[in-house]
Amino acid sequence: MTEPIVHLIDDDEAVRISVSFVLDMNDLPAKTYASAEEFLAVAEALQGGCVVTDVRMPGISGLDLVKRLKERGVTLPVIVITGHGDVPLAVEARRAGVIDFIEKPFDDEALLRSIRMALDVQLETDVHAQERQRFEQVLATLSGRETEVLRGVIAGKMNKVIAFELGISPRTVEVYRANVMSKTHANGLSELVRIALLAGF
Q1: Are 40 and 65 in contact (CB under 8 A)?
Q2: Could you say which of 7, 95, 115, 161 has the lowest number of CB atoms within 10 Å?
Q3: Which residue, of 75, 95, 127, is where some domain finishes?
Q4: Are 173 and 166 in contact (CB under 8 A)?
């Protein structure tokens, strides 16, 4: 897994330099961008890390950046830096999916706490995505009948109800159900349901 990078976007060079220094002193690799446009040019190719952006910038604002990242399917967690008068904007950004906002002048520790939280969120998202992909691949190996039985199980139906609906015997349903449990390596019904739901079944 590549090392997570903090992507810092601010049109103020002094802020970019000072925040980069703080991140460097705390062993957090960072890349800086003078504008949202500059970041958007590379955003879709990025993996891992988080985004720290000023909310007010010439051209594309921090809020517009959040919306554009969402439109492009870029899932990096975003933290916005906001001036006192920008709090309503920050609240709007939060509604758009920003995970935190920090008001200027901010304490270094507050920023670091927020960034570490964002990186934890990103790590969880990555693990979640890998898990989902694995489950999707497993469920794709089920036969048509096994898939039908699984749908019945997830709907909370008894074996005899599934059997009646599919026109097969309850014993046959049990066999298919056992096959599904074996293929998914689920330890029980609740885990089987979690696997199916996570895979968007």
Answers
A1: yes
A2: 95
A3: 127
A4: yes
pLDDT at 93: 77
The conformation of residue 107, written as its DSSP 8-state character, comes to -
Which of residues 104, 127, 150 is at a domain's end? 127
pLDDT classification of 148: cutoffs 50, 70, 90: very high
Structural domain span for residue 162? 141-198
Q: At what angle do helices 144-154 and 159-166 cross, to 10 degrees?
A: 130
| CB-CB neighbours of 19 under 10 Å | 22
Total tally of structural domains belonging to the chain? 2
In angstroms, rounded to a whole number, what is the distance separating the alpha carbons of residues 130 and 56?
35
Same domain, 81 and 160: no
- What is the structure's pLDDT at 155? 86
For tokens 């002048």, the residue is 105
Residue 59 belongs to a domain = yes
Confidence of residue 52 (pLDDT cuts 50, 70, 90): very high
Judgement on whether residues 170 and 95 belong to the same structural domain of the protein: no
pLDDT tens, position by position, 130-142: 778 888 898 999 9
One-letter amino acid for residue 160 of the chain: K
> Is residue 132 situated within a structural domain?
no
Looking at every residue in the chain, the average pLDDT score rounds to 87
Q: DSSP letters along 58-95, please?
A: SSS-HHHHHHHHHHTT----EEEEE-GGGHHHHHHHHH
